[in-house]
């Protein structure tokens, strides 16, 4: 435990760590671990889809020529394929283009300009629009809010989800709070999944704003890393039970199932919400790429096909998570300078170091050739109040690269911690 | 000339036409000519793209794995392919997803919420936002405005483009006018192309609103029907000469080159506009479908490839336009009850009948099994002040179907005209 070291011991340790660090630096490495990107081996799992998948056949099961105009909300077999990911009925889904981020952004843009189902006026007609942002969270969620001028209120994460006492209190009091961001399963970056209690409390929220929406980004719903995957309750079902059927909008995509550049994204919600969104969306586009929808439906066939496919992803990436966790357990745990969660799925390990060390660790890594997600990125406005959280994305590098990157990371984390302790 | 007929002659003619009409009705036809859709034979021209085009190769020329995240504005070879369509430089283009309509809608939504390059505030902060709408025009342009609450001001079309006296006067006077819709080549539905004078007058507009934009939807830029195609000036170049480089936003797509369901769309504009749009768009999506961009680049290779491809389209659809025009010349022209333009390209023949007959003609056709674009659709708010314009879309039906459909159309047009003349 570094905290128990004397100043002398810390200085000695610092010299040692600096020497180690300089040795790594001399290697002139160049590794990018900044984003949760699948590795090329993962993308290879789906390449059949790109070639002969549509040989001589481009009609949907109901006879639509997928090459031509039409069908705003997705061809039947694409809906059928995606429905189980969100646990929704046929009339509770829209299959869109290649990006769930785009569906989320567009949903918020429409809510701002036009309003949501049952809302009295567009959000932008409110004095202010605010979102609750459980943090650490997904930087691109927060960036949407910031870009559109939506004020963000940070809500801390507890062990089983956002601090629901705070969420309940805030939404009940303030009708300018129009939404909350959630990544309910293998949360980005914490890796935790929401407990049944948390999901039920979400479904039973009593927001003062009648046009409040839960943005339920279930990006990692089938992205398991272990044989004992997490399970979460179906929020739409819970919302229906609670008499709040229209309060949740769910999103997911195949970005980390098939291709991040060329997958399918979808929205799930109450039939009324979906109908309303369709009625707004029809002015934006005649339809998304049905050929890519057909490609996915033919390749995966059904949800079992996706499940089997995800096991292959797991085989590739679980060892990478193990490298990260083994290194942290071996190099960091004994010194009491950080904590992290051992995720059952998702794409990240969330590292929480000593206060005031995250930026320094990221800078040290960068100087030694390892690019991490910027410190603070996991918080609204990019400002981590404790400057302690770092998102580690193990999937893209090779195992060898990752091993080296984690060695550098651990040396950097130790060095930054020792420096911090010496300041005191 | 029906106008010169006596009431008795008209009544006699009406009986004859009714008998002909009833005979067609008895055939119980079902033909849809409501939209400008390519025929299956046209889509077959590009099917190679759907199969082996990406065999074992999914890297862009600059080494980007098109299956993975990244590249907001399009891979280099897709930009290279699309640039000549709009006549823009490398830094003056964004290649997007499958829909130019979506790019236009999103551009307007962002202008409303966030503002445009050089604008002082978002459009929605104005008391009112108005668009000039040359009409008859594209119904989906007008629908975007209507859905977002942008007030539309109709501008009539003259022989060589919109009434520029009116356009110049209105934009100079009213700073709530933020945009104008243009389809400069083979205009939807009139088929005319803007003269050099009109393009230059556009480029030299002096709008009172500093954040005014020309929405230049060059949807039919390579969609020629004859060996003597129209040519239009490059509006961006003209705008630069006139000192208004940022006033125009250009759009086009391969929807009617490759696939309406799975093509590529793009925005062209000044480098400053493009940079600004990129800076806003980065919050909406990580990137469009690069695999489809690569597919198109590999299939068409370059602009010459597109030009050669469009000749094949012409071979398929020019005969269909001839069927429409021959029928109109033979059946309608002698009676002085309508006029139309003989287009050198595009997807439509714009039929202007006697005042107060368009709705009736469309209804008669529908009753006889031929669905046309709704009368009025080519005007803002769906309201044709003269109830005289009908958009004929010849491309989708087979030649035989089209022949029959046009027979029904001509009988219906004659019948409606005779009815109208009898009212007087």
Keyword list:
eight-stranded mixed beta sheet, 2 domains, 424 residues, homodimer, 14% strand, Aspartate Aminotransferase, domain 1, Aspartate Aminotransferase, domain 2, alpha/beta, three-stranded antiparallel beta sheet
Task: Write structural notes for this entry.
Two copies of one chain form a homodimer. In chain A, the strands form three sheets. The first copy, chain A, has an eight-stranded mixed sheet, sandwiched between helices. Chain A has a three-stranded antiparallel sheet with strand order 10-11-13, covered by helices on one side. A two-stranded parallel sheet of chain A has the order 1-12. Chain A starts with 6 loop residues before the first helix and ends with a helix. Chain A has 13 helices and 13 strands. The first copy, chain A, folds into two domains: 2-33 and 307-423, Aspartate Aminotransferase, domain 1 (Alpha-Beta Complex), CATH 3.90.1150.10; 62-301, Type I PLP-dependent aspartate aminotransferase-like (Major domain) (Aspartate Aminotransferase, domain 2). With 424 residues, the first copy, chain A, is an alpha/beta fold. In chain A, a hairpin with a 2-residue loop joins strand 4 and strand 5. At the A-B interface, helix 4, helix 5 and helix 10 of A face helix 4, helix 5 and helix 10 of B.
In short:
The first copy, chain A, is an alpha/beta fold and 424 residues long. The first copy, chain A, folds into two domains: 2-33 and 307-423, Aspartate Aminotransferase, domain 1 (Alpha-Beta Complex), CATH 3.90.1150; 62-301, Type I PLP-dependent aspartate aminotransferase-like (Major domain) (Aspartate Aminotransferase, domain 2, 3-Layer(aba) Sandwich), CATH 3.40.640.10. Helix content of chain A is 40%, strand content 14%.
């Amino acid at each position: 435990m570094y905290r128990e070291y004397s100043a002398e011991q810390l200085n000695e340790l610092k010299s040692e760590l600096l020497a180690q660090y300089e040795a790594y630096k001399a290697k002139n490495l160049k590794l990018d671990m900044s984003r949760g990107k699948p590795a090329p081996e993962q993308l290879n799992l789906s390449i059949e889809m790109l070639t002969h998948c549509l040989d001589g056949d481009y009609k949907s099961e109901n006879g639509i020529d997928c090459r031509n105009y039409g069908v705003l909300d997705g061809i039947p077999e694409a809906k059928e394929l995606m429905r189980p990911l969100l646990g929704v009925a046929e009339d509770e889904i829209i299959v869109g283009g290649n990006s769930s981020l785009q569906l989320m952004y567009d949903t918020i843009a429409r809510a701002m300009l036009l309003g949501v189902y049952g809302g009295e006026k567009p959000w932008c007609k409110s004095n202010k629009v605010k979102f609750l942002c459980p943090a650490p969270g997904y930087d691109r969620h927060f960036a949407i809010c910031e870009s559109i001028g939506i004020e963000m209120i940070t809500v801390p994460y507890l062990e089983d989800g956002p601090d629901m006492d705070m969420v309940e209190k805030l939404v009940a009091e303030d009708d300018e709070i129009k939404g909350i961001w959630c990544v309910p399963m293998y949360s980005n970056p914490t890796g935790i999944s929401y407990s049944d209690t948390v999901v039920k409390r979400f479904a039973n929220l009593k927001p003062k704003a009648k046009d409040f929406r839960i943005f339920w980004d279930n990006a990692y719903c089938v992205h398991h890393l272990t044989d004992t995957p997490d399970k979460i309750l179906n929020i739409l079902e819970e919302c229906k039970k609670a008499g709040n059927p229209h309060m949740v909008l769910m999103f997911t995509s195949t970005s980390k199932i098939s291709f991040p550049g060329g997958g399918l994204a979808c929205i799930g919600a109450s039939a009324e919400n979906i109908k309303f969104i369709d009625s707004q969306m029809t002015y934006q586009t005649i339809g998304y790429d049905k050929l890519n929808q057909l490609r996915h439906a033919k390749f995966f066939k059904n949800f079992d096909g996706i499940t089997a496919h995800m096991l292959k992803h797991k085989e590739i990436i679980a060892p990478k998570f193990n490298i990260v966790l083994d290194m942290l357990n071996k190099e960091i745990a004994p010194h009491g300078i950080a904590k992290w969660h051992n995720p059952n799925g998702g794409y990240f390990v969330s590292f929480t170091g000593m206060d005031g060390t995250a930026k320094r660790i990221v800078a040290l890594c960068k100087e030694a050739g390892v690019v991490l997600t910027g410190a603070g990125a996991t918080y609204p406005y990019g400002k981590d109040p404790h400057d302690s959280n770092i998102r580690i994305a193990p999937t893209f590098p090779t195992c060898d690269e990752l091993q080296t990157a984690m060695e550098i990371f651990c040396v950097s984390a130790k060095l930054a911690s020792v420096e911090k302790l010496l300041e005191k």
